[in-house]
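Why do we bother with holo predictions? Because pocket geometry can differ from the apo form. Keep that in mind while you read this record for zinc ion.
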Amino acid sequence: MKDKYEAVIGLEVHAQLKTKTKMFCGCKNEFTNEPNIHVCPVCLGMPGSLPVINKKAVELAVKAALALNCKIHKKSIFARKHYFYPDLPKNYQITQYEEPFATDGYLIIEKKDGTKKKIRIKRIHMEEDAGKNIHEEHFSKVDLNRAGVPLIEIVSEPDISDPEEARLYMQKLRDILVWIGVTDGNLEEGSLRCDANVSIRPKGSKELGTKVEIKNLNSFRFIEKALRYEINRQIEAVKKGEKIIQETRLYDSQKDITKSMRTKEEAEDYRYFPDPDLPPLIIEDEWLEEIKASLGELPDEFKERVIKEYKIKEYDADILSRDKTLAYFFEEAAKSYKGEAQRVSNIILSDLLGILKEEKIELKDVPFPASYIGELLNLVDENIISLRVAKEEVLPEMVKTGKSPKVIVEEKGLKQISDTSEIEKIIKESFKNNPKAVKQYKIGDERKKQKAVQFFIGQVMKATKGKANPKLARDLIIKLLEEEN
Ligand SMILES: [Zn+2]
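The structure, written out:
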């Protein structure tokens, strides 16, 4: 980072909560391209309409805060934040300001080199989303389907030191929130949005520089790229003796630059005050305990446990722990397999996911239970089929039909050939067709001998369409080659 300067980054992440209805009214909370179909007097800001708190939204918000190690405050206050913009029909947004429901959390990111870093979370508050303005050439349109959708805003401390850490923080945050079912985490649809505050300072300095806010970071890649650009921009400006001004900048992903949008409003411009229509939010201890109990295992806990319990590689555990469906699919499969669980992880991560990607099927829609993966590998261990047949013939058929591996092996006649005389016949036939290789074995050194054996294994597999028991075939080939001499 141009060695003399360091960056100080804090992220503000908005996550849409996965509720059926909006934060303060009964309108559907659903992403749709048809504008203004989920609206009512409350979210349209009609005079006389009154908000009612969505209990499910509070529950999900508390769940998120617990998973992020926050302190939950028994009492919090909803406030009005005023600004005038067409996407905000009430002319104020209901949010939490001085008394948010959760503070003082953290999450741990793991960098490429394996080092871990704790990023503190300053606060989480609940609020409602605004609508969406769609700007066209000569006019603008507004869609209020999103107005009043429940959000949490997660504000980190400025503990992030470079663009990579920012991306890792965002990814980890998404993984956790999706895992516990709080949000669907879809960045493109805007259900997870990120703004970054970034400043630079001389390396080692304790003072904070003037911060710039960057908006519109709607992909993990953009977060990293936009910050990289902005940090360089600030360093170049300071080197030229310019002053950094406090402002909001927009990331233009096409040009890969940030550009000034507006100078930053001061907090008092919003004229925050407690919303007189809403009582203080009280989270009773009993309810909090219930939510805690419903939280279940978190990704990091899962990861640690499977490494210990199933002795799989940390790399695999890391991938599994990023997706709850995948994680528990693996565990179900591993439970039904008699051998080493690492093999289950291998076949799921490299073979099954590959097939699913090709067939454009999501794991949750796979038509067979995870235990079939265990059964499939059991068939390999019992020498009923070879691993190659398992991966290339049976597994794709399982994805297609949902049938059990046993049934598929039976129906397609994939059973391994373990009949000695039958394999011998095939070997002798291939000796006759390949006298050169037989000779190579006879006169060659150890390396040449091995090569000849490999060659005949290949021949036998080809002749049997991979169904010959590979160990038996190998033993017989060596025995018969020796006899030829
Ligand atoms: Zn409504």
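The mean pLDDT is 92.
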